[in-house]
Amino acid sequence: MKFVIATNNQNKANELKRILEPIGITAQTPAMMGIDLGDIEETGETFRENAEIKAEAAMKKTGLPAIADDSGLMVDALGGRPGVLSARYADTDEEKINKLIGELMDKEDRTAHFVCVICCCMTNGEKIFAYGQCDGTIGFAPRGNNGFGYDPIFFVEGNKTFAEMTDHQKDAMSHRGKALRELSELLLNRFSKD
Ligand code: IMP
């Protein structure tokens, strides 16, 4: 089955594609289809609302079932910030990382959680949601060159950042990997009923 992935973020698209393709889901970005999704305004107050807004807009624009994720980093000592505003916390990834390290300078609690909600919007408007979370801690300096966003300061199980892992290692424990595996199960169940 062919799906469109509602994102302009190539890193995210790559992660989504490499997990969906082995289960028989062909996923294309709008750019690969020559379609400009434009800037879909993320006006929701939750990851779920924003994932739904993006998936519905992409389905309407392309006429294909659409998959969108909304994700972010929730830091306990900051009351869950940057949360749904993770992409808008600062302009570049480097600035985001430096700002977060600065905000946590005098905080003892460095626990944080990556959260991902995926919405799959079918062409009849039916929506399927999946959720994934990965718990970790925020480091004092960036480490590693892989991944994107906050990966270089997010330590999982205390010893490695996401940016020091291979794609395969990150997928096995990441919020997005977990949400996608849940989505795969839900889609397989959904289509076995047709
Ligand atoms: P959005 O889902 O497009 O609103 O963007 C979420 C933002 O959260 C991204 O731009 C990144 O800054 C951050 N983020 C989400 N998932 C990850 C991840 O797997 N690694 C690092 N940063 C992430």
Describe the structure.
The protein has about 190 residues and is an alpha/beta fold. It has a single domain, classed as Alpha-Beta Complex (Maf protein). It contains 5 helices and 7 strands; from the N terminus they run βαβαβαββββαα. Strands 2-1-3-4-5-6-7 form a 7-stranded mixed sheet. Strand 1, helix 1 and strand 2 form a beta-alpha-beta unit. The protein is globular and about 55 Å long. The two termini are about 15 Å apart. The model has no long low-confidence stretch (mean pLDDT about 90). The site of inosinic acid (IMP) has 17 residues, from strand 3. The site of inosinic acid has 17 residues, from strand 3.
Task: Write down the CATH class.
Answer: Alpha Beta
CATH architectural grouping: Alpha-Beta Complex
Which percent band covers the strand fraction?
15-25%
Which strands sit side by side, in order, in the main sheet?
2-1-3-4-5-6-7
H/E element string? EHEHEHEEEEHH
pLDDT average, as an integer? 92
Number of domains: 1
Q: How many beta-strand runs?
A: 7
Low-confidence region ranges: none
Rg, alpha carbons: 17 Å
Ligands and ions found: inosinic acid
Fraction in helix: 25-40%
Topology:
Layout: E1 2-5, H1 10-20, E2 26-28, H2 47-62, E3 66-75, H3 93-103, E4 111-121, E5 127-138, E6 154-156, E7 160-161, H4 167-173, H5 175-192
Parallel strand pairs: 1-2, 1-3
Antiparallel strand pairs: 3-4, 4-5, 5-6, 6-7
Helix pairs in contact: 1-5, 4-5
The structure holds inosinic acid (IMP).
Entry summary:
By secondary structure, this protein is an alpha/beta fold. It has helices spanning 10-20, 47-62, 93-103, 167-173, 175-192, and strands spanning 2-5, 26-28, 66-75, 111-121, 127-138, 154-156, 160-161.
